[in-house]
Amino acid sequence: MLLRLAFRGLLDRPWRSAFLLAGFALGVGVMITLLAIGEAMVTQSKDEKLVGGGDVTVLPEGIDLEVMKTGGVGGMFASIANARFVYRQLLASPRFADRIATVAPQTDGALLYLRTADGTEYPVRALGEIPSASRDVGAAPTIVAGAWEDDEGDRRWQRPTLAELRHEIDRFHHTPTAIAADERPTWGEWHYFNVLSDDTKRWAFLTLAVGGDIPMGEWGGQVLLTMHEQGRPPRRFTQFVPSRAITLDTTRADLSLGTNTVTVLPDGRYEVRARAREAGTGAEATVTLTLTPAPGAYFPGTSIGDATLVSGYAVPALRGSMEGTICLSGRCERFSGAQGYHDHNWGVWRDVEWEWGSARLGAYAVLYGRVRRSGAEDVREPLFVYLVDSLGFRSLFRPKTIRYEDDRTVIAEGRPLRVPSRAVMEDVRGSDTLRITLEIEDAMASDVRLDRMKQQGQRTARTPREATTFLVQMKGIATLSGRLGGQPLSGRGTGFFETYR
Hints:
Blueprint: H1 2-12, H2 14-45, H3 65-70, H4 83-91, E1 106-115, E2 121-129, H5 131-136, H6 152-158, H7 162-170, E3 187-196, E4 202-212, E5 219-229, E6 235-242, E7 246-248, E8 255-257, E9 260-264, E10 270-278, E11 284-293, E12 299-304, E13 311-328, E14 331-348, E15 352-361, E16 364-373, E17 379-380, E18 384-389, E19 392-397, E20 403-405, E21 408-412, E22 415-419, E23 422-429, E24 432-446, H8 448-455, H9 464-467, E25 471-484, E26 487-500
Antiparallel strand pairs: 1-2, 3-4, 3-14, 4-5, 5-6, 6-10, 7-8, 8-9, 9-10, 10-11, 11-13, 12-13, 13-14, 15-16, 15-26, 16-17, 16-18, 18-19, 20-23, 21-22, 23-24, 24-25, 25-26
Helix pairs in contact: 1-2
């Protein structure tokens, strides 16, 4: 009966029936296609040869998943810069513990070259992942024999001890072989520390540096301590150390310049010991300090440039607590829980200038900076502002400029020099906003090029350009305001800042 009714309906209204049948067929076809696509997506999401089997996959911006799967040119050599930092400070950080259950870092299809004992070289494609993490996200391969477990390298990648973390980001370097011969003497690298008294009226800058063609050419080291008291001229203490008395390691942060040392203790604190003498008076300064970096408050380090400009920078202690003493001619000032800071610089420093600053702003700490190089090659890196709180990295902003008001005057090389009294940085990134104002309380200017020429035995006559180039070091109050993640930003505190005039 049903077949007869359907047949009679088809004969009675043939065009309407055909239209309904075509629509039904199209609907079935679309449903089959969608089910097939869904099944393919589920299969790919579990395919460890793609990127992993987790719920969310993190890849470099601009990477096409299908290109990664098929091996197109755009998928070659893809990696995430500072992947350890991304893992520790973002994906696996306490900040997102309520939303991220587990994270599995992976790299697949990396191009490596295998060289045999007889010199034959083979290209190979390598896979890297952490066994326990891959199992946690359901992306572990099937093991048919043997064991596949985490080793010490996996542990250090995920959960380094505090001492291992310091050595990882704070290690020393040899002068790169790619640096041109005339640039090699300008290579420099140093540990820098600063400490602020409780009343914020006295502070010290301490640098233990090496420079030159390290380790095979002419090179050496220097200790430089600058003591400041607000409203008074600074006092400079120095000691030069020959290369034969220097010990440094390209895998560690420890440094010895004779009896002057920076040592990373097993618990991750820095122990600093130094001696230097004041030019002219011969007064001796003795430094014995221990710096405890705040958890998570570090900048992991980056190196920019090529043979034209090499500049590297890391901040193991953006926020730290300083203990110990600084003694001048036997009179000692003791620091207990004082505001402290430590960074590490390396690179070629001829014709190089920078903007830099750091401050502790209540619950936040901020770091900003950029590098530029004048001369035949004009290199200008963009400005960045790096913000941390008690849980570590919070956000990164990119203001276009720093607006300075040069309403202060200092005496530099016997003549007055206009330097900043105030500065402002602003940025807007979507719904997030940032404003930092700097109110300068104290400033000094140094003719760094003149100092370098004296150290290298060059004549002191300079071109007009060189005569007007001074490093301006400032101390002042930084104020933070804006909004981040829908919440207000607010903080105020003391910091140190540098620019050139």
